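Quick question, first post here. What does this chain look like in 3D?
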Amino acid sequence: MTARPLMFFGTTNLDLCFNVERLPMPGESLMGILSRHPGGKGANQAVAAARLGLKPHFYTRLGDDDAGQSLLKSLTEAGVCTDAIEICVGEVSGSALVLVGDDGSNMIVIDPGANAKVAQDMIASATKFIEHDAIVVAEMGMPSVALNRLFEMKRDKGFELIFNPAPVRPGLSSAAWRSVDFVTPNQREAFELTGIEVCDFDSAAAAAVRLLDLGPRAALITLGAQGAYYADATHSFALHAFPVKAVDTTAAGDAFNGAFAASLAQRLPLREAVRKALAVAALCVTRRGAQSSMPSADAVDEFLKSQTILELE
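> Answer (accepted):
Ran it through. Tokens below.
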């Protein structure tokens, strides 16, 4: 059966990564090792899907600088369709400073650069790349006015919408929230959206109820090393994460979202799509970098053959 079309809307950054023994305290200086990696939430998600055998379209804005050229090349080499990407004369590409501790924990500061200037008319123009019966994935790094425009166009274009609300920011309209099919926050984002601190599956269930009150058809909350919790109006389930040794958690959520969207596009049943997304996220955190850590379809298949996962009703 043919896969459904897939398109991502989001940010692209050049990640300046410092690997340090541990994350610094305020006012503290530490020695570290610097490396550069292509990143950005939207770009990471698109690459995760491409590595799984999809050919997703991706909309983003890049500066016409050296970083922009490098980021565009990385996306193309990963198998992402770059027709919709805007190269912006005189603008600087987005960048991020990423500190990664030996335990895999991270701290991130972002300069959005060209990402910050996505306007409504740009979104309207990019939606011509959305094909019939497509799955569209958007993240909250883009300006809210652009997201509102994209979500507004769902009715006319007829796509299924996955919304990753990261980083959480105000400005999304109630109508936009009602157009969302799947909202996919992590624990921190779920807290910011609902006021409920998510620390386990029980608290995730409570947060999911409030997320559904915002308007989405379904909520899918990721809980890091614990797993993921899904709920809609009629049923819910939780899946434990696969146990792995994390070395860099930087793009784990992006790996999950890209893989979940790709799995739905490949027409996997919902639980299987979540299970595969957890596997991709697990493999991602065992490697350093963002896009460079996204596993191939073969690697994921081999990993799943060797693993078991517990489901909680």
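The chain is about 35% helix and 20% strand.
Residues 6-12+40-93+112-312 form a domain with the UDP-N-acetylmuramoyl-L-alanine:D-glutamate ligase fold (CATH 3.40.1190.20).
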